[in-house]
Protein: LacI family DNA-binding transcriptional regulator
Organism: Microbacterium profundi
Amino acid sequence: MNDVSSRHGRTVGVRDVAALAGVSRQTVSRVLNDHPDVAPETKTRVLQAMHELDYRMNNAARALGTRRSRTLGVLASDALQYGPSRSIAAIENAARAAGYWVSAAFADAGDDDSVISAVEHLVAQGVEGIVVVAPHARTLRALDTLRVGVPVLTLHSAGRGSRGLSVDQAAGARLAVGALADAGHSRIAHLAGPADWLEAESRTEGYAAELAHRGLDPALMLVGDWTARSGYEATQAVLAADVTAVFAANDQMALGLLGGLHEVGVAVPDEISVVGFDDVPDAEYYWPRLTTVRQDFEELARRAVASLIGGSDAAASALAPIAPVLVARDSVARPR
C-alpha cells in the first residue's frame, strides 16, 4: 500500500511505519483497515509509530489496495433547513468516528433528473453506501426509478419507504398537542410546514390524531414555509380564530408567531400558549423560553452510518423509529 504523507521534506510511507514499529508492511496495512487479526499491543505500536512519523493515510491509495473506498455518500436538498443541516453534520461526525469519509452531492428536490444525476455522481466516486436526506415525496419517487448498486438509506422521509430512518414525527406532534391539552387547552391551532414536506405531513397527522384521541376538533389549520416570517404572518389568523394555543411545526415559525403576538400586545403564555418542534439551540433563549419537541439527529446519523457499514442485521435494527422528547419550558400555561 502506498499511503503517504510528508515529514521534514520527504515522503513517509507504510515502509517507514513498519520499520519504526518493528512489524511487517502487511501488519501496518491490517491496522489501517481495521483488520480484527491484529494483537492489541501490536496495533498500539503501529499507531504510535504513525503518530511519531506524522503519517497520514491516502484514502485513494487505500481504496486501490483494498477495493474499498471507506467513503459514504450524502445526497441532500434543502440543506439550509435546520433538520437536514444538522443531520448532514451529524452524518459526517458519525462516519469519521467509524473511520469513513463523506462525499456530498446536492440536488434540486423538485427535479428528478437532478436527483438521479446526484446519485450517479456519488456512485461514480466509489461510495460504499448513500444516505439521502429526502424530506420531499418527489425525491423518493425519483429514487424508486434507480438501481444504484450500493445500500441506500433515507433520512427526513418520515419513515416512508422500506429504507427510511426517522425520528417519529407523528409521535412528536402528539407530544406537543398532548402538552397543550394537558394544560387545559381545547381550542388548539396548528401552523403546519409546507405541504410537499413529508415530515410536515406526519406532524399534521399527529396533531389530528392526538386531538381525536382526546375528543377535540381541530380549531385552525394554517400552512407556513418553515420561516419565522411565515409564523409572524400567521398572527392575525390565529387571533381571529379565537384559539388559546398553537402547535407550530418548527421552532422558527414559533419564533415568528411569538414576535407577532408580542407586537400586538398578546401575552404568551398568559393569553395564548405556543409549542414548537425541533428544539433548535436558540429555543431556550426565545421569550418566553419555548416549549418544543426535541429530535435526536446524532442518533439518527449514528444509526444511518452503522446500518450502511454494518450489514443487514445492523440495517434492520436501525429502521425502528427514534422516539422524540418533549422539552417543557415557559411558553405553555393553563388558559384563562
